[in-house]
Amino acid sequence: MTRIKDIATAYLPAEGLQALIDTLRQHHDRVLGPRVREQAIRYETISSVADLPRGVKDEHEGGRYRLHQGEEATFFGFVVGPDSLKSIVYPPRLTLWSMKRSGHEGTIEDQDEPVGSTAILGVRPCELAALAVQDKVFLGHGFEDPHYRQRRERLFLVAVECLQPGAHCFCDSMGTGPGVNGGASWDLALTELVGDGRHGFLVRAGSDAGREMMAKLPLEQAGDGLEKARETALAAAAKSMGRTLDTDGLKKTLYDHVDHPHWEKVADRCLACANCTMVCPTCFCSNTMEETALDGSSAARTRVWDSCFNLDFTYIHGGHVRRSVKSRYRQWMTHKLASWQDQFGVIGCVGCGRCITWCPVGIDITREAAVLQGKPTKTSGRTTS
Amino acid sequence: MTIHDLEPILREHPFFNGMSDEHVRILVGCAKNIRCNEGDFFCRFGKKADEFYIIRNGKVNIEIDIPQQGSMTIQTLEDGDIVGWSWLFPPYKWNFDARALQLTRAISLDADCLRNKCELDHDLGYELMKRFSAMMMERLQATRLQLLDFYAGPAGAKG
Amino acid sequence: MIAAKERTKAAAGAADPMRPELYRVQRSRRESSDTFTLELTPPRGYKPTPFQPGQFNMLYMPGVGECAISISGDPADDGVLLHTTRVVGTVTRALNGCKAGSRVGIRGPYGAPWPVAEAEGNDVVFVAGGIGLAPLRPAIFHVLAHRRQYGRIVLLYGARTPEDILFKPMLRKWSSRLDMDVYVTVDRAEAGWRGNVGVVTNLIKRAPFDRLNTTAFICGPEIMMHYTVLEILGRGVNEKGIYVSLERNMKCATGFCGHCQMGPFFVCKDGPVFRYDKVKRWMEIREL
Ligand SMILES: Cc1cc2nc3c(=O)[nH]c(=O)nc-3n(C[C@H](O)[C@H](O)[C@H](O)COP(=O)(O)OP(=O)(O)OC[C@H]3O[C@@H](n4cnc5c(N)ncnc54)[C@H](O)[C@@H]3O)c2cc1C
Ligand code: SF4
Ligand code: SF4
Ligand code: FES
Hints:
The complex is a heterotrimer.
Chain A: E1 9-13, H1 17-27, E2 30-37, E3 40-45, E4 56-61, E5 64-69, H2 86-89, E6 93-102, E7 105-110, E8 118-123, H3 125-138, H4 146-152, E9 155-160, H5 171-174, E10 188-195, E11 198-205, H6 208-214, H7 224-239, H8 250-256, H9 261-269, H10 275-279, E12 286-292, E13 298-305, E14 315-316, E15 319-320, H11 325-344, H12 354-357, H13 365-372
Parallel strand pairs in A: 2-8, 8-9, 9-10
Antiparallel strand pairs in A: 1-11, 2-3, 4-5, 6-7, 6-13, 10-11, 12-13, 14-15
Chain B: H1 3-12, H2 21-28, E1 31-36, E2 41-43, E3 51-57, E4 59-66, E5 70-78, E6 82-83, E7 97-100, E8 104-110, H3 111-120, H4 122-147
Antiparallel strand pairs in B: 1-8, 2-7, 3-6, 3-8, 4-5, 4-7
Helix pairs in contact in B: 1-2, 3-4
Chain C: H1 3-7, E1 21-32, E2 35-41, E3 56-61, E4 65-70, E5 81-86, H2 90-96, E6 103-110, E7 123-129, H3 133-145, E8 153-159, H4 168-176, E9 181-186, E10 189-190, E11 196-197, E12 214-219, H5 222-234, E13 242-245, E14 261-262, E15 265-266, H6 267-270, E16 273-275, H7 276-283
Parallel strand pairs in C: 7-8, 7-12, 8-9, 9-11, 12-13
Antiparallel strand pairs in C: 1-2, 1-6, 2-5, 3-4, 3-6, 13-16, 14-15
One iron/sulfur cluster is lined by residues 279-282, 336, 349-355, 365 of chain A.
């Protein structure tokens, strides 16, 4: 075993992956990674390589998601499941504070407990991009959300680059993948390489914490050949994206087409089920609910994920602002692709394709955008994963 | 006040803005000065609509008598406003009461006289109709808003 | 040693902007059949952030919920906080039930104010519809307190019926001032009413202001503001001199919940007060 100090790039043979998990477990309160649960790949607690969905492939299409055991022995030969980092840094349900009452008097107590540090293995480039977007929403936009901050600050991110993108993926169009470049800062990045009779990971450090971690791993020197192999694989991956989205002039296209007849067509199919907003790694909308003890002695404020597809979302005394499904679908897509840019200086879509896969009727943001852009569309993407 | 004094008043009135001198002179031929003391009526519901009024100064309430509820004011008219268009259409009867809220000076225009002049000079008729339709549009719009419950309605929901 | 591990000991985050302070109700004053004003004082030891005219707070009723209500008091008076509210639903009904001594959770102030400083040197026209007079009142207090900085001051106020007119004693006081023009109109009235009847937009035609040097502050239901703006533009006032205050569903008031979005804007933080030319395009889109 070679120990290589203070290096930015090295090679971790596949056999060393357990050492990485062990080291993460030593240093963090919990370690999450991809795991098959109820026929989907989810973020779950992991303790050994045996927990990882080794060889599992995922098929993605509009309204379709299937897992099957593939031939290869790769650890990360799939793409993204329904989960994203969103539920880790911004829990779907969180009690913010509570109030105890006695007579007129009352005391308010914070309810959000301090959370431990979390290491996550297998974070995809589009998820890093989504995290950077969420940072702007919760930390860089006037007020700061302390609940997000405390979770966000305690992350140790081990990213994995995507060499086999899915049919629903279009991160290449969005500039967010398939390699790890921009996005939120990460600690380690892995590229899983198989070839020349070897299986292992090119490892890079993106932070001091990542460098310290590398020093503890059974790493080998990474030759130029590996770096080349990575570049070739990433270039091929970028080419094999199932979908594309032309971002040129996108904001103007959406703003100029509020009355486009296509909204009506999509609305005819849209169930307003809100699935797309729930799986989307950047959607941030929430509702805050009142929860009361039966005897009225205490009350609590709980924040839950909400969606612009819900009719009640825009309720004000006397009526709902967005009554039609058309107007709600338009809000969703226009927010993602256009108004997000005005609000946060970035596009709200990172090209992860989740909303396409998890839409029961296969509504496809890339296709609907292409229609508005007046481009010829194909009905479905290629299946490459 | 003589008829000649009425001419500049009509000419400067926004309602007749842009009308030719000749037409204004014809109108003056049908006009007379009137005043109503506080509480007096310019016209009353169901009575023959044989004139209309241009308020010079004062305040006039348009009222409708609702059985069992009494009289409801539906609009207040002021300096420069026009009272009445019932004279334009058969059966030439007033649809409301117009009551002076305070001492109000106005010019009344005789309907028979005007209708005759308009028949003889369709250009004059057109000029008058244009102005009355614009005013009726405006009033209709205001009435619609009143019906909407303008101040209580859904705040954000438009359309 | 890995830094991330150390951080586990850090206390949970900084102050939560979603957490209110419990204010005490001094008194609740009836303004009309469905509208009341709460006078509130902060808890001992808590120093409230001074508010600017047009800003709002989130009011919390334990066991019921929260809603956005504009501050209706005098910005120069920091002793007591005033909120004027119309009863329309669950939270506002509960607020209406408050008596002296009740506790109401308050967080804020939030939002962009009426730009009273920018209006200096101009005639100022306030157009209010219904409860819309409440969010305008702090701005009226301000311009009257700095009377010499402004040209003519005109208030045009429309209410449903004479009984719905808010702040009657104050309106009388303002009407009697020689340096302010107050016009009130109602939608319908019994014959005894000696004031105006008709929608507030009817008043704009005759209101005394200099179209070239006028700032208009408009607050009321969106439909009322829409027609009011048309009339004011018709008088020749520039779009850039017109401000409106918009209402949307608000769950957080801090830019997190997304509910208040209107096109590129978060009404809670970019508004509720907007310069008309900036929101015109979005106000014209149905169901946005
Ligand atoms: C910036 C701003 C300033 C305001 N200032 C004032 C003011 O000064 N005075 C004033 O009187 N009002 C003001 N309002 C309006 C005020 O916030 C609303 O009237 C108030 O929220 C109504 O709350 P409620 O619980 O009484 O009504 P409800 O109608 O019961 O609604 C309360 C909340 O519960 C939810 N809800 C309730 N019923 C339904 C339903 N059927 N469907 C879906 N959702 C429902 C909605 O999400 C809603 O936000 C202001 C609003 C804003 C945005
Ligand atoms: S909009 Fe769809 S493709 Fe874009 S980030 Fe959200 S879920 Fe992914
Ligand atoms: S798309 Fe809808 S749910 Fe997602 S962030 Fe925008 S408004 Fe919220
Ligand atoms: S009220 Fe929540 S974002 Fe504006």
